[in-house]
Amino acid sequence: MGNVKFGPAGNPINYKGKTPSVCSYINQIGLDAYEYQATYGVRISKQSALALKENSDENDVLVSMHAPYYINLSSNKDDVIERSVKRLVQAAKASEWMGAYRTVFHPGFYTTYTPEEAMKQCKNSIKDIQEALEALGVENYTLAPETTGKKSQLGNLDEIIEICSSFDHFEPTVDFAHVHARSGGSIKNKTDYNKIFQKLEDALGLKSLHSHFTHVEYTDAGERKHHGVEDEDYGPPIEPLLEEIVECGWNVTIICESPYLDYDALIMKGLYQNISKI
Length: 278
Ligand SMILES: [Zn+2]
Hints:
alpha/beta; 4-stranded parallel sheet; 44% helix; binds zinc ion
């Protein structure tokens, strides 16, 4: 059976301490993963990041980082590309300090481009990022483009696979809510999840995955709002995902992005433990 970890996107709801010690709390409440949120900019100091790494090692918590939202590697504007490259380079550098095994990011928007043109621009930006990281001597990083939730965004599952198969240091992040939202609610059962895992295995040879989960509300344009995993009005369903994970035996990290972060991560972990006992 695979090693499956659960944790919150950001600091747990009732955590009052400092971020570098957050993994002690996460371990104490029974979770095993933590995604540091640099979503509004990489502001953590090197010293704090190193302290976070030490704390996570001591408490056996797997750390990842969510890079800033304001990244658009497929923009048709040079200054936007330049800023986006810079932000992602900063994020990868800080990820190395904090020992983050993934640096999650949203690749960008199509804007005026066709999907093919946007992909080409995105790949050119990634070449710039890799050159910059090499020049800085940053070696321990894994950039993890995330499946995006809006139809205006570059980043359906096929596009994420294409990016990851084109570059070293790249692994996918699958946000199941985003896949569900941008496809108009396509994930209904275990077979639907199995197709995603199978596709990743066939295309990238994977047996492990970094992922995000929440229940999600969507419109024709895609993602609208996150809801709790116990809110049955919204999908995608959690049980068939956990059943699929037990069956396929992959190592999977599930970061909870619902409004109830650590509470819902614990609910998912409890469900997983029940399913894996059967
Ligand atoms: Zn996500």
